[in-house]
C-alpha cells in the first residue's frame, strides 16, 4: 500500500552534516506519522526521530539538538538533517510510516519501511 525509498546516505567525516531523504508513494501520506530508525553493525534497529501527522516531534536523546526531521506533504517526502555527525551515528538509516497520526518511538508500531540508506561517519 505504502512504498518508501530512502536516498542520500554516504561516507562523511566526523563533524560533518548530511541530509537523507525518503520518497513515499501510495496511501494517504498527510495522515501518517513518519519516522527514522537506524541499525548499526551488530546492533538492533533503534529509534532516531519521528514526526506526527500534526507535526509534533519526537527525538531520541542521542540525536536531540543535532538531527532535525521534517516532512513535505506536497512532495510526499521525509527528510532527516543530521549535524555534527560522529562515528557512533554510522548505520543504515530507514524511514518508516504508520497509518496512525502519533509519532511513536517503537519500531513495531510502524507498518511500512524503506530499504535503508547507508551513512558512514569516519573519525
Question: Please, could you describe this protein's structure?
Answer:
Helices cover 0% and strands 49% of the residues. It is mainly β and 123 residues long. Strands 2, 4, 5, 6, 9, 10 and 11 form a 7-stranded mixed beta sheet that branches. It has a 4-stranded antiparallel beta sheet with strand order 1-3-8-7, with no helix packed on it. β4 and β5 (46-51) form a beta hairpin. The model has no long low-confidence stretch (mean pLDDT 97).
Distance between the termini: 40 Å
What share of residues are in beta strands?
A: over 45%
Provide a count of the helices. 0
In which range does the helix fraction lie?
A: under 10%
Number of strands: 11
Helix and strand composition category? mainly beta
On the 0-100 scale, what is the average pLDDT? 97
Rg, Cα atoms, Å: 13 Å
Order of helices and strands: EEEEEEEEEEE
Shape: globular
Biggest β-sheet strands, sense, barrel: 7 strands, mixed
Low-pLDDT segments, ≥5 res: none
Short recap of the structure:
By secondary structure, this protein is mainly β. Helices cover 0% and strands 49% of the residues. The chain contains no helices and eleven strands.
Any descriptors?
123 residues, mainly beta, 7-stranded mixed sheet, 4-stranded antiparallel sheet
Strand-helix topology:
Blueprint: E1 3-7, E2 11-13, E3 18-25, E4 33-39, E5 46-51, E6 57-59, E7 67-72, E8 77-82, E9 91-98, E10 112-113, E11 117-122
Parallel strand pairs: 2-11
Antiparallel strand pairs: 1-3, 3-8, 4-5, 4-9, 5-6, 7-8, 9-10, 9-11
Amino acid at each position: 500500500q505504502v512504498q518508501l525509498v530512502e536516498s542520500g546516505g554516504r561516507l562523511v567525516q566526523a563533524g560533518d552534516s548530511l541530509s537523507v531523504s525518503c520518497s513515499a508513494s501510495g496511501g494517504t501520506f498527510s495522515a501518517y506519522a513518519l519516522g527514522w530508525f537506524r541499525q548499526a553493525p551488530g546492533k538492533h534497529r533503534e529509534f532516531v526521530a519521528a514526526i506526527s501527522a500534526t507535526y509534533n516531534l519526537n527525538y531520541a536523546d542521542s540525536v536531540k539538538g543535532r538531527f532535525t526531521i521534517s516532512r513535505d506533504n506536497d512532495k510526499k517526502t521525509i527528510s532527516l538533517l543530521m549535524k555534527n555527525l560522529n562515528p557512533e551515528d554510522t548505520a543504515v538509516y530507514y524511514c518508516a510510516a504508520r497509518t496512525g497520526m502519533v509519532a511513536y518511538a517503537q519500531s513495531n508500531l510502524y507498518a511500512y519501511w524503506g530499504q535503508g540508506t547507508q551513512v558512514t561517519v569516519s573519525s
